[in-house]
Design a protein that fits this description.
- By secondary structure, this protein is an alpha+beta fold.
- 31% of the residues lie in helices and 15% in strands.
- The strands form 2 sheets. A 4-stranded antiparallel β-sheet has the order 3-4-6-7.
- Helix 2 runs antiparallel to helix 3.
- The radius of gyration is 17 Å and the shape is globular.
- The chain starts with 10 loop residues before the first strand and ends in an 18-residue tail after the last helix.
- About 6% of the residues have low confidence.
Length: 171
């Protein structure tokens, strides 16, 4: 799939602060991304801030934060941050279209990770192996980021295998 200029996300870079180590971008208007394989139109609202793919420094020689994973990482950032997504397809897979039909749908960490891989492979099919490697790395190392977001929104549930005396350890 080749994205046209009009289909690219409407983002602007934000100024790096003295302590910032990564570039961030802000949506200057709402963005609709049609993911044809699942017949879903995802929506990212105006004002949302992203940082591209969060690649550990040791792996940045293989993966760029703004390379082939970038579009998938936009969706992935939103999925992790909110634990839901906005879309324009109903639960039965039929396309509705139009902003008034937009609805929220919850998403799990595993599904968010899988969508990053699927979106990246769809846009750049020649990068299917690298998309699989990135997906595997997320499966192993992404839990801490997911947990941080769930703690921030108050929906974190401690794993049952860990016993604590108080809930404060997880806040």
């Amino acid at each position: 799939m080749i994205m046209t200029d009009e289909q690219m996300p409407p983002i602007i870079p934000l100024r790096l602060g003295p302590k910032d180590s990564t570039r961030r971008w802000k949506f200057i208007r709402g963005w609709y991304f049609y993911f044809e394989p699942l017949n879903i139109v995802f929506f990212i609202p105006k004002g949302y801030i992203i940082n591209g793919a969060s690649i550990p420094s040791w792996a940045q020689g293989m993966f760029s934060p703004v390379g082939f994973l970038f579009i998938g990482s936009i969706m992935h950032d939103f999925f992790y941050d909110k634990a839901f997504y906005y879309c324009l397809a109903n639960p039965y897979g039929q396309h509705i279209g139009g902003i008034k039909a937009c609805f929220k749908k919850p998403i799990s960490k595993n599904t968010a990770d899988d969508y990053l891989k699927q979106i990246s492979k769809w846009i750049y099919p020649e990068k299917w192996v690298a998309a699989g490697v990135a997906h595997r790395a997320l499966s192993i190392g992404g839990q801490a980021a997911w947990d941080t977001c769930r703690k921030a929104d108050g929906t974190y549930i401690a794993p049952p295998s860990i016993k604590t005396d108080t809930n404060e350890d997880w806040m």
